[in-house]
Amino acid sequence: MIRKCIIQLLLCLLATALIFGCGDGSSSETDDSSSSDGDTDGDSDTDGDSDSDADSDTDGDSDADGDSDTDGDSDTDGDSDTDGDSDTDGDSDTDGDSDTDGDSDADGDSDSDGDSDSDVSAFDWVTTWVSSQQLVEDKNKPQNNLSNKILRQVGRLTLGGEKFRFEFSNENGNGALTINAAGVAKATGNGGIDASTHTPITFGGSESVTIEQGKRVMSDEVEVTFENDIDISVTLQLGSVPSNLTGHPGARMTSFIANGSDVAAQSIQAVEKLERWYFWSQIDTYTFGDAYSIVVFGDSITDGLGSDPDHSNRWVNVFAQRLLANDATKHVAVLNHGVGGNTVVNGGLGVPLSNRYERDLLGPLKVKQVIIMEGVNDLGAGASAASIRGVFEKCINTAHDKGIQIVGGTIMPFGHYTSYYNNGSAAQRNELNQWINDTASFDAVIDFAEIVADPQNPEYMAANFKGEWDGLHPCPDGHRMIGEAIDLSLFEGIE
Q1: C-alpha dihedral sign at 100, 102, 105, 106
Q2: Looking at the domain that runs over 290-495, which CATH code has it been given?
Q3: What is the pLDDT of residues 390-407, one digit of tens each?
């Protein structure tokens, strides 16, 4: 009996030793979590193995829980992530910094906890300015050769931000374009800049870049703060420049050409001034995640002929300012892709809408709506309403295929403009306008013709819109009144 008790006691001691003294600690819980699957961060662990912290997966397998994977294997997004931070955009991120495309770390800073920030959608890239590029005609080229010159140009932002990217184009060049240095600053007028805001623009970490013919180049991110609706100045120190220039003749903003090499100079001694943009095609800004852009297609009316130079008071600018001041649309950028002398079908100046539509619609970022108000140059050249309608129908289908709403704009009256106006062109305008107003294919319509028409004679522009201009293009007050007449509710509540 005594022997039996001793044996039972020894067995109890042995069991106790096995429980408390023989384990190596590898399977013990490291906190007070009661998770039954050995997940110590309080979250479910979908790989069935223990997960010893909030973000790393130490089982040697790919991590399926959406956190960063520190075991050296590929992340679950199918690409290698070697910088130690979460990369969810499907691209390789090897720069050692947080991913700045608005996916992984929305605040633009590296995230020290190894997880993606919870405010992923707080900021994103959106296009805030464009100029539709074309082969510059000889009459619109500068008298000075641009090679080895300073070129300072001014543009009006719609949405501001704290980071920007700048695109330059040589798509119509007949040789390479070299930019030796570039910078951006707040413009102060007459070619001057606020030197305290000057920031270099770089390309792949270099201050210079060569753009091959037929190509565009986007700059690195530039960390500088600009407010909404201000003029900024982009200064280029050019190297070799092809004889065929890419640009936008209808800038309505003065550009300055000078000798020298200092892109940061507060003022420059211009050897030539002209209202043209060269090579500068797009600006993107990093701003609120709900921001988006509206692209406006048109001809010289949209491009601003009749407005005041250096005032950015086109009807498109007035419309953009109203959107910014309206709480429901305060994060909306308006992109002016108007081209003077442009046509819808063929001919005209620049690239016809039928050929440039996809380039100019799908190139900018986060486009959710598009406005088309174009066709008067076609009608003036004898085109039929049916031919213009055919292009518009393709434009509608392209927009809808991309999930973009499209707003049609009626053609303004041009009775005063005798080189365009006759009974035939008037009839075709009325036929086209009736279709634009009646079709269900457009998501909405702006009746520009009704806005500007003389109530007593609707084939003519009203005197207060015409002013001293030609009756095809509105005067500055006319531009203002057009921009003020647009119903902003057409652009509210866009998802």
Answers
A1: positive
A2: 3.40.50.1110
A3: 999 999 999 999 999 999
